[in-house]
């Protein structure tokens, strides 16, 4: 979603009449700007040395852009903690919290959720006094302190194939799910694959109907019931997702930094971060600096993973943060072409966000034969025309092979290294 520019009035005669559609669009743009300003005030409150502002970018959501040209190695953001949650310790004062932690672990094991226990605990410790269990003395937040947390990124839904999730509500039809969650899959041109040699048509595998469906976390409803929480399950799940996708590890627990949570990832980032002596999040530019309105980016990955190949980096990001990286470094590797459908690039399937490609069946790689791609990887490649599938590594290998085939012969000797013939002597090969 992008921010609509302000509309200039024509010279003389006042504004021209606008259609109802134009008026509605202008009202939506004004409301969007107002909402963004309010979010920026909440998110960046308390930040110092600030040279960034919040903006909306299509496909990315809320991001941080430079207010001005920024020199290299200049600090552009110093953010205090937005909220820190500690895990229960061994002190007598924390005996009740420790008992509740152990009870929470038992509840989670009963539904086999794949989300870490710390995320559920942090979410329950982020409730207001009115939402906490009436009979327990849990740490809580004011409604004003909780509100900015709900501005942070979270996916609209997670796939029903994940352990501990089910379609919501049980027995509901597609019409019952929110419109921002359902995105119908573009159906392939045909349900049958025609063999090139004129043989009988090959039956297609069973195809999913929807790309994404609204699902619910079974652990959420179980926790609400066990602890008699006075919060709507949907809101508690939002808080769990906020902690899962935005939190930083902290000594003894987890921590949220509101402003820094708006920073996008890049495998070739233009900024780096560190903690200062007061445990504030400090963001500084790299040597090249930033130009006005350039997006500030950091790496979500540790240095070792950042040094790996494109498919390994993309898979690590998809597993932990559920997105397919399209930064300028990753985009140097093109999408692999389907080996069966000439000239057609394959599509990315995000494992944790999308419904199973073949309902009731596992996906295996056509090249290496690795099984259960949707369970083993954060993403995989799929062709919707012929049901071809590749794991991330085989997809990368296909891309590299295709790139080599596309390379054109050298037409000029300028800047080239002399090539010698391996069959004859050490004489250079004639290029005439």
Structural account:
Strands 3-13-12 form a three-stranded antiparallel sheet, with no helix packed on it. Strands 4-10-9 form a three-stranded antiparallel sheet, with helices on one face. The protein folds into three domains: 20-80 and 259-299, Beta-clip-like (Beta Complex); 83-185 and 206-256, no CATH class; 310-405, no CATH class. The protein contains ten helices and 17 strands. The protein is α+β, with helices and mostly antiparallel strands and 432 residues long. Mean pLDDT is 85; it is low at 1-11, 171-202 and 410-432. It is globular, with a radius of gyration of 26 Å. Helix content is 26%, strand content 14%. The longest helix is centred in the N-terminal third of the chain and has 24 residues, at 20-43.
Summarize, please.
This protein is α+β, with helices and mostly antiparallel strands. The protein is built from ten helices and 17 strands. The longest helix has 24 residues, at 20-43.
Write the layout of secondary structure elements.
Elements: H1 20-43, E1 52-57, E2 61-66, E3 75-79, E4 83-86, H2 95-111, H3 117-124, H4 143-146, E5 165-167, E6 192-193, E7 202-203, E8 215-217, H5 218-227, H6 233-246, E9 248-250, E10 253-256, E11 264-265, E12 271-275, E13 281-285, E14 297-298, H7 303-306, H8 310-321, E15 347-350, H9 373-376, E16 379-382, E17 389-390, H10 392-406
Parallel strand pairs: 11-14
Antiparallel strand pairs: 1-2, 3-13, 4-10, 5-8, 6-7, 9-10, 12-13, 15-16, 16-17
Helix pairs in contact: 2-5, 3-6, 8-10
């Amino acid at each position: 979603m992008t921010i609509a520019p302000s509309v200039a009035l024509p010279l003389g005669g006042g504004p021209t009449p606008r259609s109802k559609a134009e008026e509605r669009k202008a009202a939506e743009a004004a409301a969007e700007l107002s909402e963004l300003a309010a979010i920026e005030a909440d998110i960046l409150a308390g930040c110092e040395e600030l040279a960034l502002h919040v903006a909306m970018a299509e496909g990315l959501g809320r991001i941080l852009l430079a207010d001005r040209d920024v020199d290299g190695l200049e600090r552009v953001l110093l953010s205090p903690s937005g909220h820190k949650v500690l895990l229960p310790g061994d002190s007598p004062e924390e005996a009740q919290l420790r008992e509740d932690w152990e009870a929470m672990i038992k509840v989670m094991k009963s539904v086999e959720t794949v989300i870490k226990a710390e995320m559920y605990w942090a979410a329950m410790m982020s409730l207001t006094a009115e939402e906490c269990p009436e009979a327990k003395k849990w740490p809580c937040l004011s409604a004003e302190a909780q509100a900015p947390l709900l501005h942070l990124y979270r996916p609209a839904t997670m796939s029903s194939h994940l352990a501990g999730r089910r379609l919501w509500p049980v027995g509901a039809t597609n019409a019952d799910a929110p419109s921002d969650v359902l995105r119908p899959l573009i159906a392939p041109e045909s349900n049958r694959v025609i063999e090139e040699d004129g043989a009988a048509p090959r039956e297609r595998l069973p195809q999913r109907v929807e790309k994404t469906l609204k699902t619910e976390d079974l652990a959420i409803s179980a926790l609400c019931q066990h602890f008699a929480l006075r919060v709507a399950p949907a809101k508690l799940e939002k808080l769990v997702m906020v902690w899962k996708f935005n939190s930083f590890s902290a000594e003894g627990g987890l921590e949220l930094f509101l402003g820094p949570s708006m920073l996008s990832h890049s495998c070739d980032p233009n900024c780096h971060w560190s903690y200062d002596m007061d445990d504030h999040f400090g963001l500084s530019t790299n040597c090249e600096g930033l130009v006005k309105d350039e997006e500030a980016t950091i790496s979500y990955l540790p240095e070792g993973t950042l040094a790996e190949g494109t498919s390994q980096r993309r898979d690590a990001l998809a597993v932990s943060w559920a997105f397919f990286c399209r930064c300028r470094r990753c985009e140097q590797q093109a999408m692999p072409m389907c080996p069966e459908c000439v000239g057609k690039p394959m599509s990315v399937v995000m494992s944790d966000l999308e419904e199973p490609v073949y309902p009731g069946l596992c996906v295996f790689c056509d090249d290496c034969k690795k099984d259960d791609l949707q369970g083993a990887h954060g993403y995989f490649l799929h062709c919707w025309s012929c049901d071809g599938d590749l794991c991330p590594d085989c997809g990368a290998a296909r891309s590299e092979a295709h790139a080599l085939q596309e390379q054109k012969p050298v037409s000029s000797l300028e800047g080239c290294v002399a090539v010698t013939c391996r069959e004859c002597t050490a004489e250079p090969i004639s290029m005439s």
